[in-house]
Hints:
This protein is 74% helix and 5% strand. By secondary structure, it is mostly helical. The protein has one domain. Helix 1 packs across helix 6, helix 2 crosses helix 5 and helix 5 packs across helix 6. It is globular and about 40 Å long.
Amino acid sequence: MRLLLTWLINALALMALPYLMHSVTVTHFGSALVAALVLGLVNTLIRPVLVVLTLPVTLVSLGLFILVINALLFWLVANIVDGFHVAGFWSAFLAAILYSVISWALSTLLLKKDDGNP
């Protein structure tokens, strides 16, 4: 159940992006659901490989290159999913940061930690 709620929260975060950035377009909620799913899969499967492959650059840049990886993956998903569009790399860079912040804020507000206390 928590996984489905996280997926919905990520889709809502994607739906909020066009209101903050005009260079990001999400046509309808179905596109946001698909994009959130694909983005989750890409971040789970492809991102760790890219992080390991670019480890020297990441170390030299003090970890800032991970933001570039996130932007490239966000842009990739926008090119794959119909109904979800990002204008360019710098739009994807800022959108990936905003998406992370919005998703984190919504998850903090809506998902409660179950620490076992009654």
